[in-house]
Amino acid sequence: MRLNRVLLSTLLVVIALVVQVCVLARLQLPGAVPDLLLLVVLGLALVYGHTGGALIGFGAGLLADVAPPADHAAGRYALVLCVIGYLAGLARPETGQLRSATGPMLVVVAAAIGSTLLYAGVGQLVGDDAARHVGLGKLLFTAALYDLLLAPFTVPLIMGMARKSENDPMADSSGGSRVGTQRGGLLAKAAGRSTGRLKGVKRL
């Protein structure tokens, strides 16, 4: 990954983790906790692609695994966010530009449900059945609801910051191609005019 990607991703992940632990986790909302860290991974994965999404997801999850008051096995959430980041990166449009907000919102809902199921499944493998006591259905519903409500205020902002850190390559390429086409047309016209003038001179 490029240095600017690493710096921006690290900064956003740390900020999201601090806000999630110090603010969102203390709201004592019913069911799940709004997962700001997940939304950061999704926003970056939709810009950087599946490889960047997987790496960022793994790093963010590992940081969440060791940050207090984590009460689960280290590496558990790293695996979850690594998989989610990879899959979300596959949804990145080839042009790099989203046609509507529907796609990212669907990705958020799918990621919220998928991460909860994967986290609970890994918990079953390591003997952690906390999700069973809370109720898996309630966790799935509240996780999707909270993340969907939070996503419009976070995901577009994160994607915009990621594109700016890349110097907006898609916008530059599209804009550059248009400018190049316009310049080419102007040069062709100028060449045609100069050729016509030379022919006129020769005839004289």
Topology (SSEs and partners):
Elements lengths: L2 H20 L13 H31 L9 H15 L11 H24 L4 H5 L1 H30 L3 H35 L1
Description of the molecule:
The protein has 204 residues and is an all-alpha fold. The chain is 78% helix and 0% strand. The protein has 7 helices and no strands. It has helices at residues 3-22, 36-66, 76-90, 102-125, 130-134, 136-165, 169-203. Helix 1 (3-22) runs antiparallel to helix 6 (136-165), helix 2 runs parallel beside helix 4 and helix 3 runs antiparallel to helix 4. The radius of gyration is 24 Å and the shape is globular. The protein starts with a helix and ends with a helix. The model is unreliable at 168-184 and 194-204 (pLDDT under 50).
Strand segment count: 0
Could you list the spans in which at least 5 consecutive residues all have pLDDT below 50?
168-184, 194-204
Outline, from the CA principal axes? globular
Query: What is the terminal-to-terminal distance?
Result: 64 Å
* Beta-strand fraction estimate: under 5%
Major sheet summary line: none
Give the integer mean of the pLDDT values.
Answer: 78
Radius of gyration: 24 Å
Tell me the series of helices and strands, N- to C-terminal. HHHHHHH
The number of helices is 7
Class by SSE composition: mainly alpha
Helix content: over 70%
